[in-house]
Specification:
This protein is of the alpha/beta class. The protein contains 10 helices and 14 strands. A hairpin with an 8-residue loop joins strand 6 (131-135) and strand 7 (144-149).
Length: 284
């Protein structure tokens, strides 16, 4: 049923205190999963980011691009390999990762934001040595662990009203190479360096579920003191472990709130940030 004019006005009024609260604050959004693949979901996410920017919230987008990397590796006849859930990255693969993430994926996102009325600029993690990394573990190949974030270039863009869009390739500190970086980790490290108000991880599940097979068991709020027991009881398991660990690191390092949101829900960022009804898991 369509909303009446009064109902639409009430929605805007509900958003007002949140806009006032977050205006001038920095929010880091890690963008990935189905929200990158579906045209409709991508459009919804970009709309959310532009709206937040227009009301004075300083939005930084950090993106991955796993499906696009897989597609390019398939084109050149190279099979994707994963070790402990991380892409094994040899010298040939890191070249592909750099080309795809810093090139096509990054510039397509920037172009989409600009076409829709945003003011976006793309950055690779090696630009202005934004991310400096060393090898994580030789068993993963050229997968890096961030040892330094130099956020000034991002701060300069934000100060000038731009939306920075950042790909997760890092400059090697221990070798003359690029490193492939996990996008969730990069977003958390950048949020810490920017002293962000919020870190938002878009994923392909509702959030943290008490029963992973039942989406009705969403846990809306998790306190830092709850995390060890949730891990011990198996509530935090599998692919959710590194996401929660990123959120925990961010909050313990000064980020006010971290959120795990379902990127399959259109406008999930706006619903979580600017309404009384949160739809994901918030860690604080």
């Amino acid at each position: 049923m369509p909303y009446s004019h009064v109902e639409r006005a009430q929605i805007l009024v509900e958003a007002l205190p949140y806009i006032q609260k977050y205006s001038g604050k920095t929010v880091v959004v890690k963008y990935g999963g189905n929200a990158m693949i579906s045209d409709d979901l991508r459009h919804a996410v970009m709309s959310d980011i532009i709206l937040l920017s227009l009301v004075g919230i300083r939005v930084v987008v950090v993106h991955g691009g796993g499906p696009e990397i897989n597609e390019m590796l398939t084109k050149i006849g190279k099979q994707s390999q994963f070790v402990d859930g991380l892409r094994y990255t040899d010298a040939e693969t890191v070249d592909i990762v750099q080309q795809v993430l810093c090139g096509r994926v990054n510039k397509n996102l920037v172009a989409t934001l600009n076409r829709m009325g945003g003011r976006a600029i793309g950055l690779g993690g090696m630009d202005a040595a934004l991310f400096e990394a060393q090898v994580k573990d030789r068993k993963y190949g050229l997968v890096g662990e961030i040892v330094q974030v130099n956020p000034k270039v991002v701060e300069d863009m934000l100060d000038n009203g731009y939306i920075p869009v950042i790909s997760t390739v890092a400059q090697g500190r221990d070798a003359v190479t690029a490193y492939n970086i996990n996008a969730d980790t990069a977003a958390a490290k950048l949020a810490i360096a920017l002293k962000a108000e919020k870190l938002i991880l878009l994923t392909d599940v509702r959030g943290l579920l008490r029963d992973p097979k039942d989406e009705n068991t969403l846990i809306h709020v998790v306190h830092m003191s709850d995390v060890p027991m949730l891990k011990k009881s198996g509530v935090i398991q599998g692919g959710m472990i590194p996401k929660v660990e990123c959120c925990v690191e961010a909050v313990r390092s000064g980020v006010k709130r971290s959120h795990i949101l379902d990127g399959r829900i259109p406008h999930s960022i706006l619903i979580e940030m600017l309404s009384d009804r949160g739809i994901g898991t918030m860690l604080l």
